[in-house]
Design goal:
Length: 234
């Protein structure tokens, strides 16, 4: 049975914008990527004090570093900074804007090919808007998927997300070793069409072809048959 919520009614209406006409250089999918701070810090040896899913980025499926001359300028998103610091923090260097600069150069300059995202303010504010509308942390908690010492099945986690949003997410883990008995939940992607309506992440785009594994972060697609550890804040 598919779960219903007012969120599903407003996603199509409040997140929609003018339809973006496709071109050979235009991306066809946006990937809203969340990461779990405790898992990130297992890999990067940091000390998170955050116990909710944070933004990793908003990634178009086509293009990387599309305009090296379009420099990041935090003064253009000054009104967004309080929300950025909470929702999109740099877990390694909390006082730095370097993470946002990196995301803008690598992904934002490519997303900006669409009129709806063609400024730094439009790009970052839309990412924050989508992040809050999706409310990954709240939805998982609502259906008793919470950080703990117990293990979940992959289908439990995927099923809650898929049934609630009506689309298939892409769920990524870290794998401590090839023969490990369990994997660690690390990253969840929710995908959108160019008009910001929800889309199955399984519908392949250029990003899937180029980046089957997020080499920069060390995450890869979870094994559907292995238990999943969702680590609490240590």
């Amino acid at each position: 049975m598919r779960l219903c919520s007012p969120l599903l009614l407003c996603l199509a209406a409040t997140l929609s914008s003018a339809f973006v006409i496709s071109s050979p250089h235009m991306w066809t999918k946006l990937i809203l990527t969340h990461h779990w701070p405790s898992t990130f810090c297992v890999m990067e040896h940091c000390h998170p004090n955050i116990s909710y899913w944070t933004l990793h980025g908003l990634w178009p499926d086509k293009g990387i570093d599309c305009n090296s001359s379009w420099h990041f300028n935090s003064s253009q998103i000054e009104d967004l900074l309080p929300d950025m610091e909470k929702s999109w923090p740099d877990l390694l260097h909390p006082a730095s804007t370097g993470f946002w600069k990196y995301e803008w150069h690598k992904h934002g300059t490519c997303a900006a090919r669409a009129p709806s995202l063609n400024s730094q303010h439009k790009y970052f504010s839309k990412a924050l808007e989508l992040y809050h509308k999706v409310d990954m942390d709240g939805i998982l908690r609502k259906f008793d998927i919470i950080p703990s010492e117990k293990y979940y099945t992959f289908s439990q986690i995927e099923g809650v997300i898929e049934n609630f949003y009506g689309v298939k997410p892409k769920i990524q883990c870290i794998h401590p070793s090839k023969n490990a008995d369990a994997q660690i939940l690390g990253q969840i992607e929710i995908c959108f069409n160019p008009d910001f309506t929800l889309l199955d992440c399984e519908k392949q785009g250029n990003w899937d072809k180029l980046m089957a594994v997020d080499k920069a972060s060390g995450f890869s697609v979870c094994d559907h048959d292995k238990p999943v550890y969702y680590p609490p804040l240590s």
